[in-house]
Structure formats: C-alpha cells, structure tokens
Design brief:
The chain folds into 4 domains: 139 residues, Endopeptidase. Chain P, domain 1 (Glutathione S-transferase Yfyf (Class Pi), Chain A, domain 2, Up-down Bundle); 64 residues, no CATH class; 160 residues, Neurolysin, domain 3, CATH 1.10.1370; 244 residues, Neurolysin, domain 3. It is built from 29 helices and 9 strands.
Length: 681
C-alpha cells in the first residue's frame, strides 16, 4: 500500500462539478476517511465555540450550516453505496461508523457552549431582519437542538445520546437483515412444467438469473421484478404459495429475525420522545410535519378508509367470483389474488404486462421522461461517459437549463443485483448549497430494480415500472431544480408528508395519451402503441383502486400502531400486527406471517410515524394535477409557476405556505377519492 497516497474521500474532486471519484475509492479508504472527517468537523465546531466575537447569524448559524462538509461528502458516498452496491466489508464498516456518527451528531446537539451561542442568536431573531431563507435556517437550527435534547439536564442529555446511538445501530441492523433475507432465498426450477402460465419475458429473465449463478433451469428471487411477475402469472399454486410466504415472511424467525429488533426500536424511539416531553414517538415526529398531531393522521387515514374498505371488499368478492367461474374451487388466499386479478384484468380490459412491455423499452422511456422535463422545465440531459461510476450498470448525465446553466449531475442505476436493496429511490451524493461563496449544484441519483435485459431482449418495462421511473424522477426534479443558499433547506429537504408531492405528481403523465403517444413504440417493429391499448391503460387505471388504497392505508395504520404508543407492546410481533390489521383485512391473515419484520420504510428508513405521508401527498398531488389538467399537461407556463412557487423552494418556507403559494388555496381532500373513483355520489 502506498503510504503517500492521498485518501480520495478527503480531497476535493478534480472532476467536473466535483463528481465523485468512484474509480479511485477503495473500501479501505472509508474508515480512515470517516475518522479524519469527524475530527475536522469537530475542529470546525470548536472554532465556532471559541470565536471571541459575540454570537451572530453569520459566525454561528451560517458557520454551523457550513461545517462538516468533508463528513457530508464521505457519508453521502458511503451510505448511498451501502444501499446500492454493498458487500460484507461495507456492512461491517457501516456497523463500526454508525455509532461514531451518532456520537458526533449528539456531541454537536448537546454541546452546551455551542447551544448557548445558537440561543443567543435565536433570542435576537426579531431584531435581525433576516430574509425568509435565513430566518428559516435560524428557526430550524434552534429546533434541531431543542428536539435533540439540548434543553435537557446533563444526566438526561447523556441518556438521550446513549439511546440515539443504540437506535442507529438497531435500525442499521434491521435493514441489513432484510437485505440478507432477500438474498438468501431463491426458487430454483428445473422442470419446465413448473413454468406453466409464465410469459416468455418472465421465463427469459429467470433463465438469465440462473445462468448468472452458474445454474441450469430458471431462478426466481424475492426482488420485485422476479417475485411480482411470478405471483401474477404462475399457474402453479403451490409454488405461488411458497414464494409468497418467503417474501411476506422475511425476517420472521431464522438467522435474520427482526422481531426483537422491532420491539427494541419502538421502545428506544418512545423513550427518546418522552425524554423530550412527548407522550409518544408519533407526537414527537409529527410536530414538525404538515399533519402536526397523531390525531390528525388517524382522522385522515380513517376518512380515506371509510369509502375505500367497502370498495376493496367488493373488488375482492368480484375477483373471487371470477376465479370460481374459471373452475377455482378453493378459498381465495393472498397468493391467489395477484394471479386471478391479473387474469380478470386481462379479460376485462384485454390488457397485461406481456402485451404492453414491448412498447416500453427502457431507453425509450428514459428519453421520454427526459424530454418531458425539457418541455416542462427546459432541461437538457447530456451523457457523461467520461465520469466514473460505482457499478458498470450506472449511467451519468449532465443536466443543463436552456441558458446553459449547469443544474445537476444525474446518476441512473436501473437493474437489480445482490448488492442492492429492493425497491426504488432517489438520493443525492451532494445537496445544493453555497461553499465559500460558490454555488455547488446537486449530485442526484435514481436507483431502481427494473427488469434486466436478457440475451435476446433489451430491458422492457412493465407499466408499473414506467410509473415508478416517473415517480423517482419527480424526486430527482425536486433536487435538480433546487435553488437556495443552505443545503439543509434545498431540494428534498422538506417535511416528510410533503416530500412525495413532486414524485407522485409525475406519475400522472403515464396515464395521459398525449404523453404515451410520444414514445411508446414496439421495440422490434417500431409500431406506435395502438390507441386501443392506450385507451385500455386509461380505463384500467382505477382497477382495484379500493384494494390498492386499503393496502396503503393499512401500512399507515400499522406504522401508527407501532409508534403512537408510550412503550413497545407486550406479546408477539406477528400477533400485534395481525390484531392491528384484522379490522381492515380483505384477504385472510396467514398465521406466522407479518410484514413488520421487513418493513424497511419505518424501521430502517426515515418513515417512522410517517408512512401516512404517501397518502397525504397523494391528496396534494391529485389536487395539484387537476390544476395542470386545467392549464394543459405540457403547459410551460403552468410548469414554471409550479417550479417558481413550490418545486425549487425546498424547505425554505413551511410546506403549508408553499402549497398555498402554488394553488392559491389549501388542497381539496376529496380530490384523491374523486381521482380513484371512490367518492360517493
């Protein structure tokens, strides 16, 4: 090893726009980089504390905002890669550095001399005459200290820090267990008779997966592009049941069991909240969100559930009746629902994934999404093959405004692999911010688990994957179009129940014929998607809308059941979940099966006491898209208004005010029920 080698994580990138030097980073660089970056950040904090000048906005609040830049860079790279391209070594490093980072974070928030300076500036707030953005930074800085125990007595401060450290490790371990359990299961088939009902694209994908593992036959995994189509199309009921139980029983027992971790995570969160004077973690978490209180969330979920549950029950009964009409004599079980509903959907709308996928080649869909951003916001996307990436699948694009201004670098990572967790997400390697007077534009990443190309076909997306790409790209737009000076107030740095608005809004374009007709062409013949297919897509949009809504609401109710309580519940995790979900269950609950042990969003991600926000944001986006429809879905004037009043402003203004600035009023809650065809009357 070259002892004179400079750790690339600790040096300014020599690449255009400060792009990450992925090709120079070695795994052995991370741990020393974290330790040195933490030391640098500590020295920066101490410099603020030791400043002999009286505390003011620049020397305390802005200085604190600018501190830890090296640590932000190291963390931004490392933790994104532990999600998208990890291995055992990276996981071990994560376990070692997570408590160090928690300790460092708490050492700032519980630093009494530093808090005294922040408090001194806070108390001058009325006289400072700050602009809107600076005033919001001051308010958020004050609240971040108060909400992390800065006002607690010394012994309680220490205890709060200990709880935070343990919680960071527990949530990290939870996510690692879910990924390990996902990767541990495969359904390996060697008898072609077991493939009955599976379309060619599913068979080809499974054959490609088997080949990549050095196996004969076909391999199915618990990654969504493999698991979902198998459940939807396989005519072999015992195999459907097997893979359904594997997917829905992840981390319920076995070496990756998360049940004990759930109870500990819930207990730690509740205890932290109570130290700060909140009866439950939900009370604590919601204080800074649009909903404000658990009671508001509960009323919101109940209001949507009231018309949705009867609709879902009717839909399930309709699917069961259809299955019986086809000779299915068994009770409809959860592993049957996707299969029979897909058959019914195909018969009713003459529409299925196999029919549509040839028209949604990944490259064409990506080009269409980029073009849509160009039509709405004037953005241009240029491939940058000269910039290094962290995996050969990743593609990089420079994003520019019409006037040539560089807006962002965009990293696209589409395909599943064992080193990547499931699902789809947008993240950033660097937020927008100003450093030493120079604006640093964001480095944005979109990560998905889309259908891989095979030896004979390119990557052809399901329609669901098309909407997923639009969803994550909506998040990306929120980041790429950001404006502002302070990184903690730009882009997607907004309250949790507001952050899904831009992403869910973008999904609407997938159902607009004007948009579909611009790009959906058969990958072999070049034939434009037939109008009748487009008509069927639009007609089928609300198929099983009640069932889908109930399922999402159940996730929100389950999240609140875990977090709107003073302590972890007694008894078994699986029993607690089933008791919670039983009143709204529309399919049989299966003994020993629970989603909580693999519910990454609330036990490992950032959605604890916040899963309702998907539906909350759906209300916002339904109301917002109704406005776009009025103005024209390609209206540049409409898009510029949305960008100027909401999309570019991040968290620099309270979300309630941003929405009113955009729409001219508060959102209409019934807009979502109307959109889904669930509104009475």
């Amino acid at each position: 090893m070259n002892e004179n080698r400079i750790n690339p994580l600790l040096a300014e990138s020599p690449l255009p726009y400060g792009a990450p030097v992925f090709d120079r980073i070695e795994e052995s660089d991370y741990l020393p980089a974290f330790r040195e970056a933490i030391d640098r950040a500590k020295r920066e904090i101490q410099a603020i504390v030791d400043n002999p000048a009286a505390p003011d906005f620049a020397n305390t609040i802005e200085a604190l905002e600018a501190s830890g830049r090296d640590l932000d860079r190291v963390s931004g790279l490392f933790f994104n890669l532990t999600e998208a391209c990890t291995d055992d070594t990276m996981d071990r490093i994560a376990e070692e550095v997570s408590p160090l980072l928690t300790q460092h974070g708490m050492s700032i928030l519980l630093n009494e001399p530093l808090f005294a300076r922040v408090k001194a500036v806070w108390e001058q707030r009325a006289a400072l005459q700050l602009d809107t953005e600076a005033d919001k930074l001051l308010e958020d800085t004050w609240k971040s200290f108060a909400r992390h125990g800065a006002n607690l007595p010394p012994a309680e401060k220490k205890h709060f820090a200990q709880l935070s450290e343990e919680l960071s490790l527990a949530t990290l371990k939870f996510g690692q267990n879910v990924l390990a359990a996902t990767n541990a299961y495969t359904l390996h088939l060697t008898d072609e008779a077991d493939l009955a009902g599976l379309p060619d694209f599913v068979r080809d994908m499974a054959a490609s997966e088997a080949k990549s593992r050095g196996l004969e036959g076909w391999v199915f995994t618990l990654n969504q592009p493999s698991y979902g189509p198998f459940l939807k199309f396989s005519a072999c009921r015992p195999l459907r049941e097997q893979i359904w139980r594997a997917y829905n029983g992840k981390c319920v027992g076995g070496e990756n069991d998360n049940k004990a971790l759930i109870r500990r995570i819930v207990a730690l969160r509740a205890e932290k909240a109570q130290l700060l004077g909140h009866p439950t973690y939900a009370d604590y978490a919601l204080e800074e969100r649009m909903a404000k209180k658990p009671q508001t969330v509960q009323r919101f979920l109940d209001r949507l559930m009231a018309p949705s549950l009867p609709a879902a029950q009717r839909e399930v009964a309709e699917i069961a009746a259809y299955a019986r009409s086809q000779g299915f004599a068994e009770a409809l079980m959860p592993w049957d629902f996707s299969y029979w509903s897909e058959k019914y959907r195909k018969e009713r709308f003459d529409l299925d994934d196999a029919l549509l996928k040839p028209y949604f080649q990944l490259e064409a869909v990506q080009a269409a999404v980029f073009d849509l951003a160009g039509r709405l916001y004037g953005l241009r996307f240029t491939p940058r093959t000269d910039l290094p990436v962290y995996h050969p699948d990743v593609r990089v694009f420079e994003v520019n405004a019409e006037n040539g201004r560089m807006m962002a670098l965009l990293y696209m990572d589409y395909f599943p692999r064992e080193s990547k967790r499931g699902g789809a997400w947008m993240t950033t390697f660097r937020e927008l911010g100003t450093f030493r007077g120079q604006e640093e534009r964001p480095l944005v990443s979109v990560v998905t688990n889309f259908t891989k190309p095979t030896a004979t076909t390119p990557s052809l997306l399901t329609f669901y994957e098309v909407t997923t790409l639009l969803h994550e790209f909506g998040h990306a737009l929120h980041g790429m179009l950001a404006e502002g000076r302070y990184k903690t107030l730009t882009g997607t740095s907004v309250v949790r129940d507001f952050v899904e608005l831009p992403s869910q809004l973008m999904e609407n374009w997938a159902f607009e014929p004007e948009f579909l007709n611009t790009f959906a062409r058969h990958w072999q013949s070049g034939e434009v998607i037939p109008q009748e297919y487009v008509d069927r897509i639009v007609a089928a949009r609300n198929f099983l809308a009640g069932y889908g809504q109930v399922r999402q609401l159940q996730f929100g109710l389950l999240d609140m059941a875990w977090h709107n309580r003073a302590e972890a519940p007694d008894g078994d995790v699986v029993a607690f979940e089933q008791e919670t979900l039983r009143p709204t269950a529309v399919l049989p609950l299966i003994e020993g099966i629970a989603i909580s042990p693999s519910f990454n969003h609330i036990f490992s991600g950032g959605y604890a006491a916040g899963y309702y926000s998907y539906k909350w944001a759906e209300v916002l986006e339904a109301d917002a898209f109704a406005w776009f429809k009025e103005k024209g879905i390609f209206s540049r004037e409409a898009a510029e208004h949305f960008r100027r009043t909401l999309l570019s402003r991040g968290g620099s203004v309270d979300a309630d005010i941003l929405y009113r600035d955009f729409r001219g009023r508060d959102p209409e809650p019934d807009a979502l029920l109307e959109k889904l065809g669930l509104k009475a009357g």
